[in-house]
Amino acid sequence: MPQASSPIGVFDSGVGGLSVLRALLAAMPHERFVYLADSANAPYGERGDAFVAARTHAITEYLCQQHHIKALVVACNTATAAAIHEVRSSHPELPLVGLEPAVKPALAVTKTGHVGVIGTRGTLTSAKFGKLMASLADQAHFVVQPCDGLAHAIERSVALPAAAPDSPVHATETGALCERYVQAMGSFGTGPGQMDTLVLGCTHYIFVAHELRALVGPDVQFIETGEPVARQTRRLLEAAGLLALPPSEQPTSPEGPESVQLLTTGPVAMMQAAAQRWLNLPARLCQSVSVP
């Protein structure tokens, strides 16, 4: 049975879920985490539901059997939409947190009543997302934009040098894709009929916030899911009596390198680069694994 000292499992199709891990680390600094990026099969957003569901089940089993996780955060909107209901059924004992585009929180902050939503095609065409949007259809005007290729481009960008701060947005592959999709959506701003809120419906997208900000302007609010997911994870662990004790109250402290493990089914160099760039974590925490 899981113990309070057992790790929390976190997984995504790639390195985008590190944005969620960053929020989890900030909210629960005494916890241990095992993050798994299924980069060998990324991006999930452009694969079919059956494939994504099969990978979600395989990774859940791997994390439960090999790492004895006490909770699982599915840090991927596409995997949540495709498979979270099945994982809940097969692992009723496991505290489970999934992601969905943060459309409801966007309603609470928009003043113009016009909200943009960007995400992968797999997420935005899923039945789960369709049901969510249908329930909110009369509460705001939504512009929903699938961003084919953007998550994959963000994955590739971690191995490249960061662009100069004064470079034009379209100077990079990620910037050019952001420009294409933002322009396709319409007008952003705080005026009547403009979108004043943008929902980042993929965990990767927070890592191109600079490019998106340059395109939509300084007054548009970005809504992402890392902090709400971290709060919900903490609530579930508290309710289950599985929240880790502070170091002073436990016999051995998980503080230090062993408090985070970063696993990938793809090239370990990509994970190392992403961990260093986005979380300031050392390369030694990363390793390559196989999840059949």
TrEMBL record:
Pathway: Cell wall biogenesis; peptidoglycan biosynthesis. Pfam families: Asp_Glu_race. It catalyses: L-glutamate = D-glutamate. One of its GO terms (molecular function) is glutamate racemase activity. Keywords: Cell shape, Cell wall biogenesis/degradation, Isomerase, Peptidoglycan synthesis. One of its GO terms (biological process) is regulation of cell shape. The active site is at residues 76, 202. SUPFAM superfamilies: Aspartate/glutamate racemase. Its EC number is 5.1.1.3. InterPro entries: Asp/Glu/hydantoin_racemase, Asp/Glu_race, Asp/Glu_racemase_AS_1, Glu_race. Substrate binds at residues 12-13, 44-45, 77-78, 203-204. Belongs to the aspartate/glutamate racemases family. Provides the (R)-glutamate required for cell wall biosynthesis. This is Glutamate racemase. The lineage of its organism: Bacteria, Pseudomonadati, Pseudomonadota, Betaproteobacteria, Burkholderiales. The gene is murI.
